[in-house]
Write a structure and sequence with these properties.
The protein folds into 2 domains: 1-184, no CATH class; 297-608, Alpha/Beta hydrolase fold, catalytic domain (Rossmann fold). Helix 19 links the parallel strand 9 and strand 10 (546-547). The protein has 618 residues and is α/β, with parallel strands linked by helices. It has helices at 7-43, 50-91, 99-129, 134-175, 186-196, 207-216, 219-228, 232-238, 243-251, 255-264, 266-269, 277-292, 302-313, 326-331, 360-363, 383-401, 428-451, 466-474, 525-533, 593-602, and strands spanning 4-6, 96-98, 337-343, 350-356, 365-370, 407-413, 459-464, 487-491, 515-518, 546-547. It has 20 helices and 10 strands. An 8-stranded mixed beta sheet has the order 3-4-6-5-7-8-9-10, sandwiched between helices.
Length: 618
C-alpha cells in the first residue's frame, strides 16, 4: 500500500499533540517552581535535619535531572511538531491524497494525452495529403483545434497530479522519523497523578492544571485519583478548564475513549463545560444511577431528596423495576429530557435538566433558564421538577413559534440561591452563581461550534427574580464571558447591579436590542427586592431594555400574571407577606402573555411578542 495523507487526521494529530505538549510544559514549569522553592528553603537552613538532607540529595541526584531530561524531550517533540506543521501547510490544501490512486490517475491521464497527440498528428498528416480537397482539410484542422484544447486540459491535469504526488512524497520525506521518541508525557503524568491523588483541602487547582489532568492521564488513572480524592470533582466544577480546550480535546478522542472517560469519571465529564449535551447527559446518568442504588445515601438527606426530585424532573419517577435505563427512559419522554448537570455532593446539591432536542446545539436554538430565591435543591422533592416544568412550557411555546427549528431549554439550578432572608438583598449568591453560569454559556458555545460544527450558535438566557441578577452578572462586559449570548430575558427582576448601568453593558449580539424585561403590575415582591437591595430595575428607560407586557390579553386568550411565581398555585394570592400567583397565572404557566412573550423574545422573534415592546415602564 502506498502513502496516504488526510488533512483531517493531520489536524487531529496536531491539535492533540499540541494540547499534550502545552500540558506537559505547564506541569514542568509548576514542578520546577516548586522544587526551586523547596531547594531554596533547604539551602537557607530553614528546613534542616536528616530527613531534609535526604530530600536535598533526592532532588539533586534524581528529581532535578529527571525534570531537565523531560524538558529536553518535550522541547524536542515541540521542534518535531513545528517541522510537521510546516510540512503539513504545503500539502493540507489537497485534503486527501493516496499514492496508489494518484499513480493510477497519472498513468490513465498520460495514456489519454498520448492518444490525443497521436490523433492530432494523424489529422495533420491527412489534412496535408488531401490539400486538394479544401473543405475536408479545413474540417480536420478545425477538429484539431478542439483536440488541442483537450490536450491542454490533459496537460494541466497531469501537472496537478504530479504536484499532488510530489507534495505527498515531500511531506513523507520531511516528516519521516519525527516523533520517534513518542510524546514524553508519562514522567509528567506520573507527577500529576501523584499530586492529584492526595486530598488537600487547602489546595485550589487552576483551570490549566485541571486541563493537564485530562490531557495527560488516562481514564483509569483519573478514576483511581477520584477514589482517593473525590473532592477533585468539585475542583472541576469550581474552576473548569477553558471550554474551547475541553471541546478540542474531546474531539480528538475516539468513541471508545469517550465512553471510557464517561464510565471512569462521570462526575467530571457530566459537568464539564465545552462537552456536548448528549455526552454530559450520558455521564451524569451513569453517576446518577450509581447514586440511586447506593444504600449509604440517606433518602431524607439533601442528596437523597435531590435524587427523588431528579426522577420527577425527568418524568420517570413513576417507573420502577430492576435494570432500568433511566437515561433512555427520560429521552423517550415527550419532550425528551436529560440530566445536563449533576453535583449531589455539593451543599446544596446542584443540577440542570435539558428539555427537547439536543441537536439544537448543532442547528437550532438553546435557552438557559436561571431561577431566583428559594430555588435551592435538597430541601423539597419538587424544586428541580417545578423549574423543569416551567422550562418545558417555554420549550412548548418555542416549538409553536418555530416548528422547523430544533429547540432545547435548560432548567439550570447550578448555584446556591438565597432564601427569604436578608441574603437576597446582597449580591454574593449572584456573583458566585454567575461564575459558573459564565462557564456554562461559554461551554455551550464550544459544544455548538467546535463539537457540533455550528457556524452560528444561538444561546438565549432567561432569568427570573434573583436569577436576573445572576444572569446580568454572568453576561456583563466585565463578567468574563468569551462569546456573546444572542438574547437575554429578565422576568420580575430582583434588580441589576449598579455597575451594569445599561443593557448595552451586556455581552449580547445586537446590544440592548436583544435584551428584554417584564414584570406584572400585580407582582409586588420584585419591587420589594429592588427597593431593599438598591439594585436597578431593567425596565427603567435609562437601562434601555425592550419591555414587554405580562398583563394578559383576553382578545388573544392570553392570561395575566397575578403574582411573583413562575408557576402559580391555589385559588387566592395569599397574604400580604406571602403573596403568590394563582393557579395557571404565573410568569411561565402555559397560555399567559408572559410565557408567550418570553419564549418569543428568547428566540429573537420580536414580531411574535404580543403587544410589541417599548423602552421604559410606560
Amino acid at each position: 500500500m502506498g502513502l496516504i495523507y488526510d488533512s483531517r487526521d493531520s489536524d487531529r494529530l496536531k491539535a492533540g499533540l499540541s494540547a499534550n505538549l502545552t500540558a506537559a510544559l505547564s506541569m514542568l514549569d509548576d514542578s520546577h517552581s516548586a522544587s526551586r522553592g523547596l531547594l531554596a528553603a533547604l539551602a537557607t537552613g530553614e528546613l534542616s535535619g536528616q530527613g531534609y538532607s535526604a530530600v536535598d540529595a533526592l532532588f539533586a541526584q534524581v528529581i532535578t535531572p529527571a525534570l531537565s531530561d523531560t524538558r529536553t524531550e518535550v522541547e524536542s517533540i515541540q521542534r518535531d511538531l513545528d517541522t510537521y506543521t510546516w510540512a503539513d501547510a504545503k500539502v493540507s490544501r489537497y485534503g486527501v491524497l493516496k499514492e496508489d490512486e494518484l499513480n493510477a490517475q497519472l498513468a490513465a491521464t498520460r495514456s489519454q494525452r498520448d492518444a490525443t497527440e497521436r490523433i492530432i498528428d494523424l489529422n495533420t498528416a491527412v489534412a496535408s495529403a488531401v490539400s486538394t480537397v479544401p473543405m475536408f482539410g479545413e474540417a480536420l484542422r478545425a477538429l484539431n483545434s478542439q483536440l488541442e484544447l483537450v490536450l491542454a486540459h490533459l496537460e494541466k491535469q497531469l501537472r496537478e497530479l504530479e504536484d499532488m504526488l510530489r507534495a505527498l512524497k515531500e511531506f513523507d520525506a520531511a516528516t519521516r522519523g519525527l516523533f520517534r521518541k513518542g510524546p514524553p508525557v508519562r514522567t509528567v503524568a506520573s507527577t500529576v497523578a501523584a499530586s492529584a491523588a492526595k486530598p488537600d483541602p487547602l489546595r485550589t487547582w487552576t483551570a490549566s492544571e485541571l486541563m493537564n489532568l485530562l490531557a495527560l492521564l488516562s481514564p483509569a488513572e483519573v478514576q483511581r485519583i477520584l477514589t482517593s480524592n473525590p473532592e477533585l470533582a468539585q475542583q472541576f466544577w469550581n474552576t473548569p478548564p477553558p471550554a474551547e480546550a475541553v471541546a478540542t480535546w474531546w474531539r480528538s478522542l475516539s468513541p471508545e475513549q469517550r465512553e471510557q472517560w464517561s464510565q471512569s469519571a462521570p462526575s467530571i465529564i457530566g459537568n464539564l463545560p465545552g462537552l456536548d449535551a448528549d455526552t454530559r447527559i450520558h455521564a451524569n446518568m451513569i453517576q446518577f444511577q450509581r447514586d440511586l442504588y447506593d444504600p449509604s445515601i440517606d433518602p431524607n438527606s439533601p442528596r437523597g431528596i435531590v435524587i427523588q426530585d431528579i426522577l420527577t424532573a425527568l418524568n420517570v419517577g413513576g417507573i420502577s423495576g430492576p435494570g432500568l435505563n433511566y437515561e433512555r427512559l427520560a429521552k423517550e419522554q415527550l419532550p425528551p429530557r436529560g440530566l445536563l448537570a449533576y453535583n449531589s455532593t455539593h451543599a446544596p446539591p446542584l443540577a440542570a435538566v435539558a428539555i427537547g432536542d439536543t441537536s439544537a446545539e448543532k442547528s437550532g436554538k438553546v435557552t438557559w433558564m436561571v431561577p431566583g430565591m428559594d430555588s435551592g435543591l435538597g430541601k423539597k422533592t419538587d424544586t428541580l421538577s417545578g423549574w423543569t416544568n416551567a422550562a418545558v412550557n417555554v420549550w412548548k411555546t418555542q416549538e409553536y413559534f418555530e416548528r422547523d427549528v430544533p429547540h432545547m431549554t435548560v432548567a439550570w439550578i447550578g448555584y446556591a440561591p438565597p432564601t427569604q432572608d436578608p441574603t437576597v438583598l446582597h449580591g454574593d449568591h449572584a456573583r458566585a452563581g454567575a461564575v459558573r453560569l459564565t462557564a456554562e454559556l461559554d461551554g455551550q458555545w464550544a459544544a455548538s461550534a467546535i463539537l457540533g460544527g455550528n457556524p452560528s450558535p444561538f444561546t438565549a438566557v432567561v432569568g427570573h427574580s434573583y436569577g436576573t441578577t445572576v444572569v446580568t452578572n454572568a453576561v456583563s462586559a466585565g463578567g468574563g464571558l468569551s462569546h456573546n449570548a444572542q438574547s437575554v430575558v429578565l422576568l420580575a427582576s430582583a434588580g441589576v447591579e449598579k455597575d451594569i448601568p445599561t443593557a448595552d453593558s451586556l455581552r449580547v449580539d445586537g446590544g440592548a436590542g436583544q435584551v428584554y424585561a417584564s414584570q406584572s403590575s400585580q407582582d409586588q415582591i420584585a419591587d420589594w427586592g429592588r427597593a431593599g437591595s438598591g439594585r436597578g430595575d431593567p425596565r427603567d428607560e435609562s437601562f434601555g431594555a425592550n419591555v414587554f407586557s405580562s398583563e394578559g390579553d383576553p382578545a388573544n386568550r392570553l392570561k395575566p400574571t397575578d403574582g411573583h411565581d413562575v408557576l402559580g398555585y391555589g385559588s387566592d394570592r395569599g397574604g400580604y407577606f406571602s403573596q403568590h400567583a394563582t393557579a395557571g397565572q404565573g410568569y411561565l404557566n402555559m397560555h399567559t402573555e408572559a410565557i408567550n412573550n418570553t419564549a418569543a423574545a428568547a428566540l429573537g422573534l420580536d414580531s411574535e411578542i404580543n403587544g410589541g415592546t417599548h423602552v421604559g415602564k410606560d
